[in-house]
Design a protein that fits this description.
This protein is an alpha/beta fold. It is built from seven helices and seven strands. The strands form two sheets. Strands 5-4-3-6-7 form a five-stranded parallel sheet, with helices on one face.
Length: 222
């Protein structure tokens, strides 16, 4: 069960148990939009039906955020950023990079998503170009590893790591802990096929395109 910190009560509480959930992102910043998307994806893993709306109508498909309806908070079950009712308050980010400028520099815009998921959403984020570049390099390394694992015999999702991932995400969206679990899995003595399936499973929520390079020609090692 997904549990989130409610800024009104100061408590981490379960989401409403109704099968249909309406989430509204009032904050127009990238961090709030990314958080709203992660909430949607995670709730869908729990077989909840989600209606996600946002006040900001920017095209953020470069961050793997599908278009949402522009709407007022109304009777939303959960507000992200600001608004009435149950509130998930997102801490500010020092600077928002331009996705267009990142692409022009040859950096993957999803490196911004990774850099923002590295920090608990309730803590202020000091984001600079160095952090984005570091995240871009890590994305490339992870995708290369995932593509290599995909060439090995398939194995089931690793049960212990899957449970750890879901527990971290369900516990107030502890995305840094979830990412750390993936890093430990990458270095663990686990069959490559199981690593691949577990990373692919996690990416359904994290949406970092970790399987993007599967099947592509890779430069053989020298």
């Amino acid at each position: 069960m997904l549990r989130l910190y409610d800024a009104r009560t100061g408590q981490v509480e379960d989401l409403p148990r109704a099968r249909f959930l309406r989430v509204h992102v009032s904050g127009g910043d990238l961090r709030s939009r990314i958080l709203g998307d992660v909430i949607r994806r995670l709730a869908e893993r729990h077989r909840r039906q989600i209606l996600l709306t946002a006040s900001d109508g920017r095209d953020l498909t470069a961050l793997n955020i599908p278009p949402t309806d522009q709407d007022a908070p109304g009777d939303a079950d959960l507000n992200v950023g600001r608004g009435p009712g149950r509130l998930v308050a997102v801490a500010p980010t020092s600077e928002e990079p331009s996705l267009t400028e990142l692409a022009e520099r040859g950096l993957d815009p999803l490196s911004v998503r990774l850099a923002m998921l590295e920090r608990p959403y309730r803590e202020p984020l000091e984001l600079d170009s160095r952090q984005v570049e570091t995240a871009d390099r890590e994305l490339r390394r992870l995708r290369e590893s995932v593509a290599g694992w995909a060439e090995e015999p398939s194995k089931p999702v690793h049960g212990d790591y899957r449970a750890e991932l879901i527990e971290a995400l369900d516990s107030d969206l502890d995305t840094p802990k979830a990412l750390e679990a993936l890093r430990r899995l990458a270095a663990a003595e686990v069959p490559p096929g199981s690593k691949f399936e577990t990373f692919a499973y996690a990416d359904m929520v994290l949406a970092l395109d970790l399987v993007r390079d599967v099947g592509r020609s890779r430069t053989p090692p020298r």
